[in-house]
Amino acid sequence: MKQVEQIYSKLEIPAPSAGFEDRIISVALAQKNSAAQSARVFNFKAYAAACLAVFVVTAAILMPQQKTSGEEYASLIDGSAIIDEADIYDDLI
Amino acid sequence: MISKPNTGKTKADELESAKILQLITSGDENAFSAYVKQRARYYYNVAYRVTLNREAAEDAVQNAFIKLWEKRLELKADGNLNAWLYRVVVNKAIDDKRRFRSVGIDENHPDAHDEEEQHIKNDEAIVVQKSLEGLPPRQRAAVMMVYFDELPQKEAADNMGIGLKAFESLLSRAKVILKEKLDETSRTNIQQAGNSGAIRRV
User: ipTM greater than 0.95, yes or no?
Assistant: First the structure.
């Protein structure tokens, strides 16, 4: 399709506005500072996320220990009923 | 692996581009500035062929160069900078959400009315402009990459992030629409020229 093949060569392209290249350079290089700022924000977020993760992991580790302590404490108590039939009828006999 | 688009550059230019890329990836602002001055106009032309609007084309190129500078540390120093930027520019141009009225041909240009030759040239340019305006940006980009920049269809499809079959379908639709628009615009122009000629004669 020769018509299609040649069409873009006939397209008249207006010149870009004055200072086009200089504007790109200044805008792009200015991004460096904002990029650095966003990097710092990202670092803060990462730090906060790390702290939260440490807290969650620590809590998860400690929870079973608390259970273990409770179980140990429970093991110290006699498994038999606190008041048994003997206690009830002792005074009567 | 991205093959280079038909950028009209020689092997020596590519080597120079590789050196510039190495400098840019190391954060060299002077190298970046030199690259912008060297290549911005070429990418502006690429973007204009997709957007058909000066402001939108400028924005697409500016955003592409900003992306280059932001991503400089992530780019491979031995990569093909021109091909990478070409892809970014084309996609930025396609994604431009604004639909400006294109600038078109300057009818107030001093030579535009008097010279018969200029008239014919302008008529032809108007036909081309109006025909291309009838295509959506994605189809314009597909036609431009394959028929103007002479990219293989696979490369062009990769640039647009679509499969080869989808690209072939897109290109096929674009050709049909473009042919219709060309015929339609040519007919309208001939009619208008006939009418204005008749008016002048009267």
Answer: no
